[in-house]
Amino acid sequence: xxxxKNNILIETLQTIYGMDNGTTCYNALCQLLKExxxxxxxxxxxxxxxxxxxxxxxxxxxxxxxxxxxxxDSLIPKxxxxxxxxxxxxxxxxxxxxxxxxxxxxxxxxxxxxxxNKQINVxxxxxxxxxxxxxxxxxxxxxxxxxxxxxxKDYRKVDPRNGSWNDVLEFVDDGIGLMFDFVANHASxxxxxxxxxxxxxxxxxxxxxxxxxxxxxxxxxAYAKDQKPSDEDILKLARxxxxxxxxxxxxxxDQNTDTCVAKLGDPEIDNNRDDSGGEKSTLLGTGLxxxxxxxxxxxxxxxxxxxxVDLNFSNINVLMEVVKILLFYIEKGAxxxxxxxxxxxxKEIGSTSLHEEKAHLLLEVLRIVMEKLSPSTxxxxxxxxxxxxxxxxxxRGKGHEECDMVYQFAxxxxxxxxxxxxxxxxxxxxxxxxxxxxxxxxxxLLGSHDGMAMKQAGELLPSDELSWLGMKLSDxxxxxxxxxxTKPGGKKIVYECCGTPWAIINGDGxxxxxxMDLRVMKLARYLAVVGAGLSLRGMPAIYFNGLLCxxxxxxxxxxxxxxxxxxxxxxxxxxxxxxxxxTYGNQGIKGIMYLFxxxxxxxxxxxxxxxxxxxxxxxxxxxxxxxxxxxxxxxVRLDDSxxxxxxxxxxxxxxxxxxxxxxxxxxxxxxxxxxxxxxNDDMMQQQQQMIARDILKLDEEMFIxxxxxxxxxxxxxxxxxxxxxxxxxxxxxxxxxxxxxxxxSKNDL
Length: 749
Prior knowledge:
This protein is of the alpha/beta class. It has 4 domains: 3-49; 60-185 and 313-598, Alpha-Beta Barrel (TIM Barrel); 192-310, no CATH class; 612-748, Sandwich (Immunoglobulin-like). Helix content is 30%, strand content 19%. It contains 22 helices and 28 strands. β26 (716-719) and β27 form a beta hairpin. The longest helix has 27 residues, at 19-45. The model is unreliable at 273-277, 644-653 and 745-749 (pLDDT under 50).
């Protein structure tokens, strides 16, 4: 029934769940497949029942298509609060939306208008952002209560504050490919799945909801308080937060309505039984539930602030529910599905409960199911971990594939370190370990809605360099905020630095307050970080507030969490001020769109495809006669997809290659590269002439032609007199894409 992978599916399910439960799960998936096939047949017979939309396919040939990451409410209507819905104003905002205050447009409609209607002059051509960002990752747009959407109250609804399902489908009508988040590891305590599972543990058989909640037995991992795992076992767990992994909960019964409600916290501290039945509410029971992303207790009130409860994937019914949700998202227009926090989905007391073998086996199951039920859907693993932990999420080989793509967090931190330290040495180490993988590849984050991931940089940077970077980001003018995690054994580590991408790289401040030289330097430095990330060849993904080059945000009502600093919701007036002429937003959008547009240039696009050989970092030398290493300039060789794949040596036989060059420093740099690093010895012995030209011409596009800039920046490329070395002269924080070709004779030049 599942083709060549039928036996693999059965065996994998039995390995995960045991012989009997694995067989039961297999049969349930087969039944789901039959239902899906029947629906498809009905659709074929009645095509008018299906909404007609443009089909956007994502495959190996266009994995490098730029992706914009945005909250559904990134662009809010005029009159709506511009604050990032911190805790103190959320109730007010919700009340405004659902009572008398109505708006002409929804946030989702405004985001669509920005992509379709905003006109940007890029390279002498006026285009819309949607012509470049043909993929849009809409961060969780479902009803939620904390963590800006990642505490999902209902997986199948659009939060009315954001818009409707029709608003979502209109992106598809426009030809925009959509990535949906599936928050796979956890959901809000108010999510019906979580509520039913917690209530089921304590409800009495004479209560009205008894039969209703029974199917949700063990949808969560919970313990009676006297059965709490040992402190020793709990310390073995990997924790993305510094707070306890187990959170207290309680269940109340309302005699008036014959209903139950589950809450996180302590009933004696909360003293809020009136929320579920007044004086007649009854405490049915208490316990502890697994909450990987716990917030802990409020220091002032002592009340529990955690809202996210983990799902229990050791229950086959949870897996079936997950598959149904994924299919629902596909029906609603998703061509990519991002599996949030997927490394944590399998828990076992006594282990780290991160990257467990059964987590990978579950992804193998999902891959087989998705290939059969929706073969064009791309599944993306979000694994906020060091680079060495990423590639396993792409699978173990033929027949054991997992996800199609995996998030690459390290580039953003490592490139920022490079431009602040003015050295490419450590970034080059990232390129060295960034092998492509059987047509699968990275989603390369060039700025994130969560801030800068520091844990990933810790695998590549020496401890003193990591500490230096943290101090640099925390001090003025960047003023980033720090979030912590807990390693197995209980040691607290820096998890991320929170700030907008622009503030992290350049600090806060507006263009009008800076000198002309500083304006050019800041913009070039920002684009250098983006450009360096393209050397990894993955799908470049940039956060909306990073695209606008916005500064850190501190609402008057205060921060409900550190990440709020980079999650400002922008109204029409603010959007105008951020993108008008004479702002970093205006120049930044142009620069980023220009870089991404050039990925499709006919002379370079084959060099960025996932089917091309692995990128090769090269060490440039100074052009002063000493031939010393020049770490200020990043040089990466990108051979094209016609070259033999998976070849990591410097002697691969090609007739053309592409050099990605980024100056990571504040000064002009002139460097040389031996031609033997570009072409093999046989070609060089023929003493053939070389042709080299800068395809990118970014500095010419962004700076020299700028009316506000009377300084000329110089980027040149040539060969030395003996035609044995390529000579590169690159401006401060400048970058070049140098196409180097072998000529048959001098006439070819």
